[in-house]
Amino acid sequence: MEVFDTIIQISDSAVRLAIPLLLACLAGLFSERGGIFDIGLEGKMLAAAFLSAGVAAATGNVWLGLFAGIAVSVVLALIHGVASITFRGDQLISGVAINFLAAGLTVVIGQAWFGLGGRTPALPGDGRFSNLEWPVADALKDVPVLGPVYSELISGHTFLVYVALLIVPLSWYVLFRTRFGLRLRAVGENPGAVDTAGISVVKLRYSAVIICGVLCGLAGAYLSTGLAAGFVKDMSAGRGFIALAALIFAKWRPVQALMACLLFGLLEAIANRYQSIEIGALEIPVQFMQALPYILTVVILAGFIGKAIPPKAGGEPYVKER
Amino acid sequence: MQKLPKWADIVLIPLINLLLAFLVSGLVILAIGKDPIVAIQTMIDGAFGSTTGLGYTLYYATNFMFTGLAVSVAFQARIFNIGGEGQALLGGLGVALVCLSIDWPHWLVALPAAAIGGAVFGAAWAFIPAYLQAKRGSHIVITTIMFNFIAASLIGFLLADLLKVPGSMDPATANFPPGAHLPTFNDIFALFGLDVFKHAPVNVSFFVALFCAFGFWVLIWHTRLGFAMRAFGQSERGAQYAGISPLKITVIAMLISGALAGMMAINNVMGESERLILNATEGAGFIGIAVALMGRSHPIGVILASILFGFLYQGGAELSLWEGIPRELVTVIQGLVILFTGALDGMVRRPLENLFLILRKPTKNGAV
User: Fold this and answer.
1) Closest Cα of chain B to A152: distance in Å?
2) Of A24, A75, A307, B359, which residue is the least packed, with the fewest Cβ within 10 Å?
3) CB pairs under 8 A between A and B
4) Domain contains A168
5) Is residue A31 part of a domain?
6) Which domain holds residue A214?
7) Are B157 and A287 an interchain contact pair (Cβ–Cβ within 8 Å)?
């Protein structure tokens, strides 16, 4: 029974840890399907985490925090859009710039605002998203096997967790079953064809970038008001890059993105719980677990296990023919 | 047709971009309720006001010259090596292993050996992404980002488990033997009876960095290989048609790039901490990107941009000490420099091009 409890606990924390990855990963999915590479997921997430926690701490209202987080993330996404769509700059360089801007500004503004060395005050009850208890979760707790699965694993997460999980089928529907989705995918593969059909490449790409901003905003808000109770410096801790890795792992598809993020969340949960894992005589150091998502991504990218092919026009600014 | 005169491309545009970055930084300082003028005075005073401050500025600049040259050399072949950080971390491992291997008799012997150690480890770390890009088509930007994280985990593991001093809790290697101590500027000037650059970590690696910049210039503009790299950067297909192998050029450019990033370790690991510690690079690998963009991938530009960022780094430390502005302000400036010189370059360039076209027209008509 003890083993079972441990498994439940680890799975539970794996889900919690997978959510920010998932939201950021879906953000990247929309952007990259639309032909805009985005290595600034990390920065947008960090900025959103900061402003969500800051506004929630200042007003005591987590919803205002959430909207502030989304707003700042969309602003950064628009900077990326202006640089890479309007001025046809290098999308990778723009993403790098946004990461640095967010890493610096969150601390500089945080220090001026709260004077706590770049962190926000710990959020009180109303300043963060509380866990939603599902009906009769408490009563079922003692039912063997299914009880803990229902009351711990399925019930008792914050609102944003369920939102994130719902966004997965929604993204699939939007991308693969709507006109907008078809056009968005087309603009990432062959913008010239989309343009010829009389549809604005610029508008489509901007909408991709804005969706990306909104989702990164959710991811960041979840980090500081759902997963933790407040913002600390550099709290995104490379999650934006793991999300990017998950995106490649999922080969730019939403449902697979969920799987990849759950896998990487599980790795993080295990690494958090154990300092090292012994399998027989072999001892796996915790650093290896931390590096595993990155190693797996390189292996996938190298095409040794299935080939990951990014959207064809990704990273290329579109120049209208005259 | 050349739209812009050369001087405008090399001097005017970077200057305007830099001014824009500083302007926005000034607004940030204003927004947090501080005085930008006082801030810049504090920074200049802290970075250039004393020989100690100058020593720190040049020490940071040395790091950035290595990483800036590393990013630049790959840029020449139109390859974006974002993995300088990881390569520099691995370079630190190489330098540490060399320094700890024997009891070095003199730094003149230890320095070249350590430099080779750092270069080999850095180059090896760059080789895998380069090979995967050229041979398997995996995007080098993504793989080098991943390799930065893998490098950090690897070094963390080695320092926590294998390389640390037995019995110590500190995740760091043993101190290097005295024979591996590089003369600092303070040591050098003491020979002439001058007591300057006191306590500053700037050391002979500074000259090694300058030499590398010179080597960069020779390589890129005066050798066959450099020509092949530039040709590949300008047009991959054209270069291929001329018989230049993309695999070879990608791998060679990345090996040189990784070697330069790895050599940074003679400054920060061998010259300053004199042992390998966690996070020894302190983000210098990423600053290399800003330096390369700012310096237009030219050695002179890289040297100047490195000194600028050395100033920002040292001045930023003083700012946090005296003005209560966190040194992360430097990260903001760094981000703005990358944004304006790299991504938003077209915002300044296009209007300027139009301006120069308008200015040029009358003379053209006159000639006809």
Assistant:
1) 32
2) B359
3) 154
4) yes
5) yes
6) 2-129+141-301
7) yes
CA distance A205 to A216: 16
Query: Looking at the complex, does the CB of residue A107 fall below 8 Å from at least one CB of chain B?
Result: yes
* Mean pLDDT of the A254-260 span: 94
> What burial letters (b/e) apply to B109-120, b meaning 16+ CB within 10 Å?
ebbebbbbbbbb
State whether ipTM is beyond 0.95: no
Q: Categorize the per-residue pLDDT at A273 as very low, low, confident or very high, splitting at 50, 70 and 90.
A: confident
Instruction: Tell me whether residue A161 is in a domain.
Output: yes
**Helix, strand or coil, per DSSP, at residue B223:** coil
Domain map (residue ranges) of chain B: 35-324
Mean pLDDT of all residues in chain A?
88
pLDDT recorded at residue A186? 94
Residue B106: φ, ψ to 5°: -155, 150
Is the Cβ pair A297, B146 closer than 8 Å?
yes
Residue A88: its chain B contacts at CB < 8 A? 346
B164 backbone dihedrals φ, ψ, rounded to 5°: -75, 160
Q: Do A238 and B149 touch (CB under 8 A)?
A: yes
Q: How far is A98 from chain B (nearest CA, A)?
A: 7
pLDDT band at A269 (very low <50, low <70, confident <90, very high): confident
Please indicate whether, in this complex, the C-beta atoms of B344 and A83 are within 8 angstroms of each other. yes
pLDDT in tens, A90-116: 898 899 899 999 999 999 999 989 888
Q: Is B144 left (phi over 0), alpha (psi -120 to 50) or beta?
A: alpha
Residue A275: what pLDDT? 67
What are the pLDDT digits (tens) for B216-243? 999 999 999 999 999 998 888 888 888 8
d(CA B291, CA B262): 17
Q: Which helix (H) or strand (E) holds B144?
A: helix B140-157
Q: List, in order, residues 6 or more apart from B233 with CB less than 8 Å away.
A: B75, B76, B77, B78, B79
Helices A2-33 + A254-273 axis angle, to 10: 140
Residue A319 counted as domain residue: no
Can you give the CATH number for the domain in which A271 is found?
1.10.3470
Q: Which residues from A are below 8 Å from B33, CB to CB?
A: 112
